[in-house]
Amino acid sequence: MNERLYTVVFVEDEYLTREEISRTTDWKSMGLSLAGTASDGISGEKMIHEVDPDIVITDIRLPGQDGLEMLSHCQVSAAVILSGHTDYQYMKRAIRLGVMDYLQKPVDDEELEATLREAVSRLDEENNDIERIKSSIDDSAMTIKLPESAGNIQIEAIIKFIKTNYSKPIGLVDAAQSVNLSESHLSRLFKEITGVNYLQYLNAYRINQSLGMLCNPRLSIGDISLACGFPNPGYFAKIFRKYIGMTPTQFRDTQQL
């Protein structure tokens, strides 16, 4: 089992469902810790921003705002949707937001546990990728060394796609469409060729672009985060710390000593 516990926020407006899943799920055995619950989309969004969980489990139809709208305002590593309705438009939106699974209510305990264990496995893999990327940082230039020529036409096209569009909200779906591959095929191929997954490569490239900008005191952290494709300064700081080991502000201070 993973030595650390990944945090979970659970957003569900049905009291009985919220209480049953919260109390009966053996979180710790899966390497998880339930950090908090919320009963509507507004308080759920607030809690996600405050707790910064690794995983969000949420119903779609919530008071205040629906679960997908809530997720679109937050940046989480993994999200699981619970819903009593099968709606293609909901599922399409969920896929574009990077939701890893869409479970039908009433939720089967074994199915939820399997999904959460898969989420933990993905988070472990992502953290291993980040550590691998961090080991390639050029300390003298404070830049992350990333593969430039993969020797694979499709992956080279994706790397070019990242370089051209990194400032935009591009996900695996957009990258796969640019080379006419399925998301699953591209995900496997990208990891096989470059050694890291698509999102970690994209984030590392964005961080590289931000490093030079941070040396310019005239540019605000907010402007830099948007220019490099991060949706808000908070998420930028979270990812920057993961790769560089300090916040953008701390990095900027070290460059001005």
How many domains is the backbone divided into? Answer: 2
Number of strands: 7
Radius of gyration: 19 Å
- How many strands, what sense, and barrel or not for the largest sheet? 5 strands, parallel
The helix/strand class is: alpha/beta
Uncertain runs are none
| Termini gap | 43 Å
Q: Output mean pLDDT.
A: 89
- SSE order: EHEHEHEHEHEEHHHHHHH
Determine the CATH topology of the largest domain. Rossmann fold
CATH superfamily of the largest domain: Response regulator
Overall description:
The protein is α/β, with parallel strands linked by helices and 257 residues long. It has two domains: 6-126, Response regulator (Rossmann fold, 3-Layer(aba) Sandwich); 136-255, Homeodomain-like (Arc Repressor Mutant, subunit A). Helix content is 54%, strand content 12%. The chain is built from twelve helices and seven strands. The protein has helices at residues 15-24, 41-51, 67-72, 88-96, 109-134, 153-165, 172-178, 183-194, 198-214, 221-227, 233-244, 248-255; strands at 6-11, 32-38, 55-59, 78-83, 101-104, 137-138, 143-144. The chain has a five-stranded parallel sheet, sandwiched between helices. Helix 1 (15-24) links the parallel strand 1 (6-11) and strand 2. The model has no long low-confidence stretch (mean pLDDT 89).
